[in-house]
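TA notes, week 10

Several of you asked for a full example with nothing omitted. So below is the full record: structure tokens for the whole chain, then the designed sequence directly under it. When grading your own attempts, check the secondary structure regions first.
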């Protein structure tokens, strides 16, 4: 599910203004839906699609996301994250989603998880029940920002 959220952001990543609006919209949707991990543990997971990275973390118990530019900010986040999911961008764009898809990508070495895989699973489970409502809320929020 983290990959699906990252893909929503990745779809609008062709401009800093659009990406910034998308991240703000997603964070608002995450806050409105009160998406949180099952445990009270803090979480820091980075999803990397090609050269683009998205940092998922808990803030006051609620999940938040940020887009990472390459350079010092990305290196700092990488040094502090508990898990990182790396996916081949060609495979990501040419395949369909779902849990079976993730397993197939892992088997073909097009996706791998570095660090604590249990943290990725916590993130995945937190997003699992919310992905359709997050997508809808995100797209509504993004549409409002474009109209104003």
């Amino acid at each position: 599910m983290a990959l699906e959220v990252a893909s929503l952001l990745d779809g609008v990543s062709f401009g800093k203004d659009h990406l910034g609006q998308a991240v703000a919209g997603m964070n608002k949707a995450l806050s409105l839906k009160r998406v949180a991990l099952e445990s009270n543990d803090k979480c820091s997971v980075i999803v990397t699609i090609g050269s683009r990275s998205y940092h998922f973390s808990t803030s006051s118990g609620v999940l938040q996301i940020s887009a990472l530019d390459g350079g010092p900010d990305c290196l700092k986040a990488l040094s502090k994250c508990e898990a990182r999911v790396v996916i081949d961008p060609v495979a990501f764009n040419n395949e369909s989603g779902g849990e079976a898809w993730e397993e197939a990508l892992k088997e073909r070495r097009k996706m791998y998880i570095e660090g604590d895989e249990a943290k990725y699973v916590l993130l995945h489970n937190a997003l699992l029940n919310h992905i359709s409502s997050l997508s809808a809320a995100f797209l509504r929020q993004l549409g409002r920002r474009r109209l104003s």
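The helical segments are 2-10, 16-32, 72-80, 89-94, 99-107, 117-128, 131-147. Use that as a sanity check on your answer.
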